């Protein structure tokens, strides 16, 4: 009995262990069933890498886009996406020549390095290799605007001119009227070394002057730049080209002619170096007062009063050869030799508006004064030199000068 009882107990023990094992197996199966029920096949698929996306083909864009005519100052460009540029050829249809350009680092873009022309057409042929290895071609046409007129910016003094005096303004003249003066002024810059405050004043619709607040400092270097190409100046007029020039300002030469004393004192870099007796314009023909700037000089010329309305047969008419002529206004005012008035020089004003000098003094003045040097006339009884009379720029105080800018 004891042996049977022990066997029974062992059997019961083994059945208990089997029951526990079966329960654990059932639990595992249930858990797997739950996972499968909640996540499904995606849980299995997540283990595998996703398939690669399709490789997009190369795309080439030409700018400016075809359609409306574009400003030739805008560079022509080509860009590629999903690839690299292999070649870009741009042909000027007017000349048949290739337009210069370069492909940027990385070969994703190209841009022109030479300016386009007005009223022209450019054929673009671009080739790229896509990331998928395929070769792609793109052709296009870019047209530029046709202006109604082109305005050329001339400089005064001309670029070939040597040094100028401290009173020399910078002058830009256009051969067509400028309607949008602000656009033109934004395209013009003047720099000076040493730096000096200055500004533009529009003398007319086709002429702009730049001067510093005070006379240029002796020894200054002045550079004017007119980047006019592509600038819309209004009413169909566009800037023709870009230009620049540099002027060198020499020593300061300023003559002060006083109609009250009939003397002219001459200053070199601020120091008095000479004094001369003079005769200014008579009461009938008074000299203009204010700063005058030398524009030209001639060893000899024929002066004709008919140029300002007093012609042959009229009282005061004259036509005679005059030596050592230094022009200081466009109204016919000169500093010149006047041997016929040496008796009045230093005592009375008898000229037709000019500054009369004895021959020896006229020679000295002619030898020392040139373009841009200054003659300041006071107490002559005449009106101020008009601002529009060649270089009447210094007649205006700084506030009035600034008001002549299109940007103020």
Tell me, what's the shape?
elongated
Quote the distance from N terminus to C terminus: 127 Å
Structural class: alpha+beta
What's the average pLDDT? 89
Based on DSSP secondary structure assignment, what is the total number of beta strands?
Answer: 26
How much helicity do the residues have? 10-25%
Give me the Rg, rounded.
44 Å
Largest sheet: 5 strands, mixed
Low-confidence stretches: 1-44
SSE layout and pairing:
Elements: H1 2-39, H2 42-45, E1 59-63, E2 77-81, E3 83-92, E4 101-103, E5 109-112, E6 121-130, E7 135-143, E8 149-151, E9 153-156, E10 170-174, H3 181-186, E11 188-193, E12 198-204, E13 207-212, E14 221-227, E15 232-234, E16 237-239, E17 242-248, E18 253-258, E19 263-268, E20 271-277, E21 290-293, E22 296-304, E23 319-327, E24 334-337, E25 355-357, H4 359-368, E26 374-378, H5 398-402
Parallel strand pairs: 8-16, 18-26, 24-25
Antiparallel strand pairs: 1-2, 2-5, 3-6, 4-5, 6-7, 9-10, 10-13, 11-14, 12-13, 14-17, 15-16, 18-19, 19-20, 21-26, 22-23, 23-24
